Amino acid sequence: MQFQTQLKILGAKRFKDTVDGTLYDTTKLFVEVNLNDNNGNAVGSASSEMQWGTSDNFAKISSLSFPFVAMCDMEMVTNGKTTKTVINDLRPVSAAKPSAS
Question: Which residue of 9, 42, 60, 99 has the smallest Cβ count within 10 Å?
């Protein structure tokens, strides 16, 4: 299932290396998500890690000022047991406004 949504991108991390004979080539984005406050034990937001393709994607945003808001093309994928949401593409929309303290 594919969809679009706007996300605040807090940070990014790339990894490209061979570990125990297996090549890993990824970019992970850290996005702001609301904490589940249904039971009254949490308020505000936290960072959640999402996959965004290969390490080549990191260069597309590494020079931007963080955090920033982006329109993201996303997809829910499964291996038959677990489901996760990945980012297929993103387009920066604007710099995120600093939160009031």
Answer: 99
Instruction: Report the pLDDT value the prediction gives residue 40, as an integer from 0 to 100.
Output: 87
Task: Say if CB 71 and CB 8 are below 8 A apart.
Answer: no
Query: Sign of torsion, CA 51 52 55 59?
Result: negative
Query: Coil, helix or strand for 65?
Result: coil
- pLDDT of 99 > 90? The answer is no
Taking CA atoms, 85 is separated from 15, 49, 100, in Å, by 19, 10, 30
The rounded distance, in Å, linking the Cα atoms of 73 and 70 is: 10
Structure tokens at 33: 């998500």
What pTM was computed for the model?
0.84
Asked whether the beta carbons of 76 and 84 are under 8 A apart, the reply is yes
